[in-house]
Automatic annotation (TrEMBL):
<feature type="compositionally biased region" description="Basic and acidic residues">
    <location>
        <begin position="229"/>
        <end position="239"/>
    </location>
</feature>
<feature type="region of interest" description="Disordered">
    <location>
        <begin position="18"/>
        <end position="63"/>
    </location>
</feature>
<dbReference type="GO" id="GO:0020037">
    <property type="term" value="F:heme binding"/>
</dbReference>
<dbReference type="GO" id="GO:0016705">
    <property type="term" value="F:oxidoreductase activity, acting on paired donors, with incorporation or reduction of molecular oxygen"/>
</dbReference>
<protein>
    <submittedName>
        <fullName>Cytochrome P450</fullName>
    </submittedName>
</protein>
<dbReference type="InterPro" id="IPR036396">
    <property type="entry name" value="Cyt_P450_sf"/>
</dbReference>
<dbReference type="InterPro" id="IPR002397">
    <property type="entry name" value="Cyt_P450_B"/>
</dbReference>
<dbReference type="InterPro" id="IPR001128">
    <property type="entry name" value="Cyt_P450"/>
</dbReference>
<dbReference type="GO" id="GO:0005506">
    <property type="term" value="F:iron ion binding"/>
</dbReference>
<dbReference type="Pfam" id="PF00067">
    <property type="entry name" value="p450"/>
</dbReference>
<feature type="region of interest" description="Disordered">
    <location>
        <begin position="229"/>
        <end position="254"/>
    </location>
</feature>
<dbReference type="GO" id="GO:0004497">
    <property type="term" value="F:monooxygenase activity"/>
</dbReference>
<comment type="similarity">
    <text>Belongs to the cytochrome P450 family.</text>
</comment>
Amino acid sequence: MGTEASAAHTACTTAAACPAAAARAPVDHDPVDDPPSCPARHGNPGELRPEWAASTGHGPLTRVTLPSGDRAWLVTGYREVRALATDSRISADATHPNYPELVHVPEESPPDRRSAAQTRTFVQMDPPEQGAHRSLLVPHFGGRRIAALRPMVTATVDALLDRMLTAGPPVDLVAEFAAPLPARVLTELLGIADADRAFFAERLARGPSGIGALAPYLDRVLRDRADALPDRAGHDPGGRPHPQPHTGPGDEPAENILDTLAAHARTGTLTHRQALATAMMLLVAGHETTENTLAVGTPLLLAHPGRFAALRRDPEAMPAAVEEVLRHVSTADVLSRVATAPVEIAGVRIRAGEGVLLWLAAANRDGAAFPLPDTFDILRAGPRHLAFGHGFHLCLGNTLARLELGVAFAALATRVPTLRPAVPLDRVPAKPAPGLRGITELPVTWDAPTTGAPTAAPAGPQ
Ligand code: HEM
């Protein structure tokens, strides 16, 4: 998912308290007398919150009250979430005054919307501006580029498992595996200098506080790399002709994302602040999402030992298992949007200026789209889940995330076949709302000694 604000997208409690929502005729007023508040506390992220059961039958759109007291539409239907995610009247512009904030900003410190506008990244923009900014990074996330990362991802997974197996059980799988894996992968993707990699990955694995602390470092690196490049006129920063005439970022993408961002900052496609904000956004978007999906997905797989074992024998089954984990975990719970023009959907009239919350996790449990939606079934066939969003903002890192998850689960199944949670999942602490759905730790154990050999390039999702 997207920016820091997006990371703050969170689940809303609605269903339990929610009376019938979708009236037959379009309604343009609150259809409920006592709209439930949002956000809610997260319960067990593996099982989702109990209000889910009560939400079925209340229609695909309901009203919720935000922490600010404002109202917003909460969209829970699979069909409706997909439709609104591709509707140009539904904006992701976080600087819109009615953008539904799921974190309450106290009166004394109103949001600085001008400053926010200057550091907005494409996850909070609308087409065509969003597409123009997104396209700068698209070459780094193409199929071939990501496939070329497989050996690095595999080696990283094996190194983490070597360390874990040497330490012996029990270990915290979040701290030892789920958090460091995406941290190290992002370090590579961004192109952090060799000497700084350990420091950078360690900070990143600490989560939001560690990521915040990386801003000054990235600021300096982007400036240094931009300064080393010629400007549009082919001059170096001292005004002298640069030894290599400038060709722009060019058709061939730079080796890594920081070089690409620095090149765009040098030529003025992006301001330095935008380049920095984009790098920071990628850390938020790419780290905790993957960590949470690994951390919550592992015990889901372990709860089905037969299937988990089958993954060892039949790597072909892995892509479907990864998709079911993504659907079930739906770590990026809710996406904030605002209507810029009236929209009529499912018998409801959304007025211009009203906030809209696309509840991905709910849509991924919509029984109309997924039979027995609460059942974790790695053999499930059916429509594409919405864990990566849909439409304009479909997750740019989805191929990379799928690669990481597939390699990680295959290695766990192969190298630690007796892996099991050391405590029941409902006893592991959920990450506090608001935020991405996840767990803060996962004590695991296994029958030592396990000396499983490294996973030498396991097959996994392509
Ligand atoms: C399991 C892991 C992941 C999940 C569940 C996930 C989920 C999402 C979701 C739901 C969105 C849509 C946000 C919106 O519409 O407002 C999104 C967007 C995005 N994600 Fe991911 N993501 C994951 C991993 C990654 C990774 C590894 C990266 C990159 C390193 C990444 C980069 C992005 C970017 C750049 C966007 C913004 C796309 C746009 O606005 O055009 N994500 N992600």
